[in-house]
Amino acid sequence: MTTMNNEVKEHILAGTMASLKMILTVPYLIEDLTETVPIDAMLHSVQIDLSGECNGAILIQGELSVYSYIGEGMFGMPISGELLESFIGEFANMLTGNLATLLSNYGLTTDISTPKFLKHVNVNQYSQPITIPIVLKEKEKNLMISLFINI
Questions:
Q1: How far apart are CA 77 and CA 44, in angstroms?
Q2: Whole-model pTM?
Q3: Which CATH superfamily is domain 3-150 in?
């Protein structure tokens, strides 16, 4: 692996962390990174693909209560039903859109797809995932963000 590939991966990881800091308004902790992607049918999964100079995908997974808690922190009121489903996609857009903007500061052009809601997670199409486990302090539940980067 070249230095450029490592550098791009570091920018993507750092950009994801910075994006989280910008949009998460609830208390959270980031646990140790892992190369394991959770495969759990109880988790609501949304994927946004990256293309351009950074190819891959971002997979965000959490229970509905986790997304609801994040939404409540952002909007000041609980969200549920269709609004919650819409919020999950919008949360993914905010995170990935911020990441694409931050990557442009490093001269990396990255386009993002619309969110895809997944009933089944298939991680075989990407190599070397990096998963960021995020513990929401008050809920003691996790939000998982997996980065699949093909450079």
A1: 21
A2: 0.90
A3: CheC-like (3.40.1550.10)
